[in-house]
Amino acid sequence: MKLLIISAAYPPSPGGVATHVANIAHSFIAVDKSNKAFVLATCKEKSSEHNEGKEGRLYVKKLKTEAINDFDGRRAPFGEIIKFVMGRFHRISPDIIHVHDFDSAYIGVMLKAAFKTPLVFTYHRAPSPWWDNKFQDNPKDCFLEAAKINNFFDFIAVPSDANKEILLTQGFDEGKIKVIKHGLAIKRLCSHANVESILAELKFDPSKKMILCPVIFDEHKNPEVFIRAASILKKKDPDNKFIFVLTDNPDRDDIYSPIRNMASDLGLKVDEDFFLKRFGFTQMATLYRNSFVCVIPSLRESFGQTVIESFVYKTPVIASNSGALPEIIKHRKNGLLFTPNSHDELVERIQNILDDSSLRNRLVKNALLDAEKNYDSQRMVKDYLELYKMVIKK
After folding, report:
1. Rounded distance between C-alpha atoms, residue 73 and residue 108, angstroms
2. Residues 6+ apart with CB under 8 A from 45
3. What pTM value is reported for the model?
4. 20 to 30 A from 43, CA-CA: which of 228, 296, 342, 361?
């Protein structure tokens, strides 16, 4: 089978979508030696092309585009991207197209119209409440409404029941939606070596307890609850030496100066016990391995890939009881949940793990078993292959 994947993110770009797309591509060629995959990534890095798979069975083409803050089908680069793919489509000759975000879906719809190739859309968007005529207020929802009415997609894959529920509320056909949980290349993750220079940057030593918060700041994350909890914990438990790490890009002063100022105002020492830094995908392994706990303070989440990464690296997880997170985390079995926005409850959960080593050990053990059983990338791709074959047959 030949697969064309289109996405606005691919490693080394940060974020769950980039990792997810790479896991699909690599596992797709691994599960069947006759499979071939072509990845078109429209991203901020410079344009490039290379083979990542054995015998040239995975080809990655990156096209540099302007920074796009939100889905906008009017932007000029789309015309150039679509022309680029259309000019090479017969050479790629895919059996199916798989798109991974709204901008890529727009491109995929054009290709489906031109070449009558089946189109699968993975809906990664964080679930948010639906109301009547919501599509009149938001371009993404408007595009989805057009997709529903005009049958743009042959099938929609979602990573969680929370995502499926939103689409059903909007009126999509349940028979064309399938929940396929994300999966990670666990062996590949575990192969990433520790990068000691990162620990030196964070002034980390074994006497300290690192509390990690791996977020990319957007509307459905809430780093403030992490910062407030960090401030309380530092004052409440002076016997422990903590360092608190947020992992997003600190270059945008319009967003990050208020974050630094807030941390400082609450008694945290920026660049001493509170750090705001960006780390590459392979560097994150060092942080996970050396963290005492990982905090996911999302207001809404479509899946929570950082949760599974924490599972793999044996870092106990504390996450908001919202969106798809409670579908992955079973409270006090493989992680802990706290009420969204409640920094007091988050402090309590961290304190639970500090005070009870047997609880920490149990969470870590169960989480790793869960990741190996339910969240392996080859299991995920087998589910996708089943979906692809069904769509092609129809």
Report:
1. 12
2. 12, 13, 62, 64
3. 0.90
4. 296
pLDDT at 253: 62
What is the predicted pLDDT for the residue at 76?
A: 46
What DSSP string runs through 305-368?
A: HHHHHHHHTT--EEEES-TTHHHH--BTTTBEEE-TT-HHHHHHHHHHHHH-HHHHHHHHHHHH
**Short-list 31, 44, 38, 54, CA closest to 111:** 38
Q: How confident is the model at residue 69 (pLDDT cuts 50, 70, 90)?
A: low
pLDDT in tens, 208-235: 999 999 987 677 788 899 999 999 999 9
Same domain for 171 and 248, yes or no, is no
For 142-156, what is the HEC assignment? HHHHHHHHHCCCCEE
Tokens for 213?
Answer: 């918060």
Among 379, 303, 368, CA closest to 334: 368
Mark whether 142 and 280 lie in a shared domain.
Answer: no
Domain that holds residue 265: 187-374
pLDDT in tens, 133-174: 888 988 889 999 999 999 999 999 999 999 999 999 999 999
Domain check: are 269 and 139 in the same one? no
Mean local confidence (pLDDT), 300-323? 94
With beta carbons less than 8 A apart as the criterion, state whether 257 and 166 touch. Answer: no
3-class secondary structure, 196: helix
Looking at residue 99, its pLDDT comes to 97
**163 and 117 assigned to the same domain:** yes
Both 217 and 230 in a single domain?
yes
Looking up residue 175, the CATH number of its domain turns out to be: 3.40.50.2000
Pair (221, 137) in one structural domain: no
Locus of tokens 């589910």:
383
Q: How many Å apart are CA 127 and CA 382, to the nearest integer? A: 25
Q: Is 37 exposed, middle or buried (0-12, 13-18, 19+ CB in 10 A)?
A: buried
Which region, left, alpha or beta, applies to residue 326 given φ > 0 means left and ψ of -120 to 50 means alpha?
A: alpha
Provide the pLDDT for residue 258: 86
How many domains, in total, are found in the chain? 2
Is pLDDT of 72 > 60?
Answer: no
Beta-bridge partners for 5: 39, 98
